[in-house]
Structure formats: structure tokens, C-alpha cells
Amino acid sequence: MTGSKLKSRWLSGRALVIALPSVWLLAFFLLPFLIVFKISISVMEVVQFKDLVTFEDGLLQLTLKLSNYAFIAQDSLYVGTYLASLKYAAATTVLCLALGYPFAYFMARAKSTLQPTLLMLVMLPFWTSFLLRVYAWKGLLSEGGFIADLIIDSGTDQLLAAAGLITAPGRLMHTPFSLVLGMTYTYLPFMILPLYGNLAKMDLHLLEAASDLGASAWTAFWKITVPLSKAGIIAGSMLVFIPCIGEFVIPELLGGPETLMIGRVMWDEFFSNNDWPMASSVAVVMVLLIIVPLAIFNKYQAEAQEGHR
């Protein structure tokens, strides 16, 4: 009897732990998404939306407006904007990984007394307003800015222009270079932190065993460290890639007409054109683009957990 009561309490506690985040997700993600989806397939009448289901004179009618989604698929502006958003988000993710992995590796291998200081340095930018930090880069990259003068004096702007990252030598603002630089700076801590958490837990005896077996430090790094940190790489990549797709502030301040991203298009549809169904359709498609990498990440996590059992 006592055992059954304990089991019943354990099951009820487990159900409560599962139910609380589920209710949270339902209230603050699924329901708002369904509202946005409803608007995307609704007909807008001046300032109101026509009901999807109407019943008049004994006739039940369902009205779904799918032309917005067809227009998004056919219009080159929207397709190009989605592709540009994916391109800039992917470039930012790769740069964050290239810069964040060595720093996270150094943090994980540093002395235990030094690690809190390094961790604080990574989190220090969060103590300042996100908007102020982006505006700071606007001043640094504008004509006469410290970073702009450094790049121009070193001749790096010639290389950036040859690569097509800036429109002309000396012009750094409102270019793909300034956009990706701003997003890389902003989201770099989101790559470092999960990588550090993963690398700090790694068993260093594996590297010692590889060295005893004749493996060089470089071989041990690629054969042991990188595979074991795959979960941190994927988690950090998702934390960077997903918000970068819908980024609005950085493309608005540091980007330009040539760096149009989906966040700006959504803003224009909502507030400039006042076309809420179209803007909602753009938002729904963007969410679907985000769900795909999330599904891949969840699948990897499930496979990893099965492998550990």
C-alpha cells in the first residue's frame, strides 16, 4: 500500500512537472501562433477581419484566403528576402562558431580560478542595452570611426570590396559586411556559452589515452574533442541561427537596401502597408523555416540520448 502511494505521488509529480511547461508553451507560443495563422488566412475588411466561418440563411460558409501564401511563393521579392535571411543567418552562425569555439575551448581548459572571470567577460555585453551596442557599431563603422579607419588604413576594405561584401572601398556601413559583423558580435555569446558548458564536462582522460596511443594533439582534437562537443556545436548554432533569421534591429541600423531581411519586410507589411494578413503570412512562413532546424536538433538530441542508454 505504501509503495503504491509513493508511486502514485511520483507519477502525479512527474505529470505536474511535464504539464507546467506544456501549459506555458500552449499559452505563449501555440495560441499566439494560431491567432497569427488565422489572420493570415482571413479577409481584411478596412480595420476588421471577416469571420472564417459564417452562417447566413441556413448556409454554413468557410472562407479561407490562401492567396497570400501563393503570392509569397511566386513573388521574387519575398523569395529573395527569405533566401537572404537564411544566407546571412548561416554566415553569422559559421563566423560565431569559428570565433566562439577557440574561446570556449580556452575557457574550458583555463585554470578553475580564471574561468569565472572569463565567463563574466562573455556575459558582460548583456549588461548594456542591445540597442546601444548596435548603435556603437554604427559609430565605429561610419566614416571617421575607429574600426572604419583601421580597416581602411590596413587596406582590408579593398579585399572586402573585391569579395563583394561592401559596395566600394571605404564604404563599410549599410553593406553585407556591416550586417554580418553586427550580428556576429551580438550573438557570439550564445555560441560560446553552450560550447563552454559542453567542453568543460569532457573527460580529459580520453585525450591522455589518445596521446599514449600515439595520436598527435591535432589528431586527438579532431577525433575526440570535436565529436564529443557536437551537442554544444548544434545547440550554439541553433541559438544563433534561429534569432538571426527574423532579426530586425541590426539589419535596420547596420544593413541597407542590399541587405533586406524578412524582419524588415514583415515590419513594412504590418505598419507601412497595413496589410496584416500578408504580414501574418510572412510570419507563418518564417516560423516554419525556424521549425525545420529545430526538428533536426530535437532528432539529434533524441538519437544522442538513445545512444547513451
Describe the structure.
- The chain has 309 residues and is mainly alpha-helical.
- The chain has a single domain, classed as MetI-like fold (Orthogonal Bundle).
- Helices cover 74% and strands 4% of the residues.
- A two-stranded antiparallel sheet has the order 1-2. Strands 3-4 form a two-stranded antiparallel ribbon.
- A hairpin with a 2-residue loop joins strand 3 and strand 4.
- The radius of gyration is 25 Å and the shape is globular.
- The protein starts with a helix and ends with a helix.
- 25% of the residues are buried.
Describe what is shown at a glance.
It contains 14 helices and four strands. It is mainly alpha-helical and 309 residues long.
State the total count of DSSP E strands.
4
Percent of residues in helices: over 70%
CATH architectural designation:
Orthogonal Bundle
Strand portion? under 5%
CATH homologous superfamily placement: MetI-like
What would the average pLDDT be, to the nearest integer? 83
As laid out across the biggest beta sheet, the strand order is 1-2
CATH topology: MetI-like fold
Number of helices: 14
Order of secondary-structure elements: HEEEEHHHHHHHHHHHHH
Are there runs of 5+ residues with pLDDT below 50, and where? none
| Cα gyration radius (Å) | 25 Å
Total domain modules: 1
The multimeric state of the shown protein is single chain
Q: Which secondary-structure class do the elements indicate? A: mainly alpha
The shape, in one word, is: globular
State the separation between the terminal residues, measured CA to CA.
32 Å
For the sheet with most strands, the description reads: 2 strands, antiparallel
Write down the CATH class: Mainly Alpha
